Amino acid sequence: MIDIKQLKYFATIVEEGQITKAARKLHIAQPPLSQQLKQLEETLGVTLLERNGKKLELTESGKILYHKAKQLLQQLDDAILEVRETNEGIKGILSIGCVKSCFFYLPETIKKFNKNFPDVKFHLREGDSFLISELLKQREIEIGIVRLPIDSNQYEIISLPSDPYVAVIPKQWKYHHHYIYMKEFTDIPLLLLHRISGKGQYELVINECRRHGFEPKIICECPDVTILLSLVSKGVGATIVPKSTVSIFRIPEITVLEIIDSSIQAEAAVIVEKNRYISKSSIHFLEILKTELSSK
């Protein structure tokens, strides 16, 4: 019979790529781990892993077993969490991933949640939308807050309010109005948010510039909005970001301008994995977040 322990060992070997590394991660000796893998292969009558230099690579049979094993292990984790929560109530750790330009949505919700459920501790992770979605797939977080677009087939999506884009320029430029027109960006050096992978805000801003008849002069692309705003504050160039993003950081050396003739909006959403047990902590956090949004 194959047991859960063998599947866990096998999955760890696959993810670490070496039995030595897997043994270290599992806190067991290498020989017993090698023996467990050998027993699993003998039980199934197939070779699961083949050596390629210093790394182990999955055979076709191994790929199938790894995919099924991950599903079973995740279902077991969900079942254990559900059973414990039934007995213990609301406590433990709630892991949330958030795009930095969406941090605006977190503080009030965390404050209210903490007041109601003081035994829950937060683990926060940040990154661009691609990284947050990857953390969700890998089950390192339960809830993700991202900028759209994102592949909606894999997630349950709760839309957040649209957010207008604003121009952010160095205060030292001494701009005399509280607004700006898109055409004025023609010769301005631009610093733009750009995802590590996929399309998003970068393409939206580029297309808006083209709609107004010019190619923007982009001198920097970066997935981290704090880096961009810091560069703007030093006079390197200007940026175009969601309005709520700027309100979080309160940087004195920048000036925020309304863009008069642009209608582009930043879209954000809360995402959770489909077909995954949602902890009580997550459910209550989402309920509080929705209440906060409806009151604004």
From TrEMBL:
<dbReference type="Pfam" id="PF03466">
    <property type="entry name" value="LysR_substrate"/>
</dbReference>
<keyword id="KW-0805">Transcription regulation</keyword>
<comment type="similarity">
    <text>Belongs to the LysR transcriptional regulatory family.</text>
</comment>
<dbReference type="Pfam" id="PF00126">
    <property type="entry name" value="HTH_1"/>
</dbReference>
<dbReference type="InterPro" id="IPR036390">
    <property type="entry name" value="WH_DNA-bd_sf"/>
</dbReference>
<dbReference type="InterPro" id="IPR005119">
    <property type="entry name" value="LysR_subst-bd"/>
</dbReference>
<protein>
    <submittedName>
        <fullName>DNA-binding transcriptional LysR family regulator</fullName>
    </submittedName>
</protein>
<dbReference type="GO" id="GO:0003677">
    <property type="term" value="F:DNA binding"/>
</dbReference>
<dbReference type="InterPro" id="IPR050950">
    <property type="entry name" value="HTH-type_LysR_regulators"/>
</dbReference>
<dbReference type="InterPro" id="IPR036388">
    <property type="entry name" value="WH-like_DNA-bd_sf"/>
</dbReference>
<dbReference type="InterPro" id="IPR000847">
    <property type="entry name" value="LysR_HTH_N"/>
</dbReference>
<keyword id="KW-0238">DNA-binding</keyword>
<dbReference type="GO" id="GO:0005829">
    <property type="term" value="C:cytosol"/>
</dbReference>
<dbReference type="GO" id="GO:0003700">
    <property type="term" value="F:DNA-binding transcription factor activity"/>
</dbReference>
<keyword id="KW-0804">Transcription</keyword>
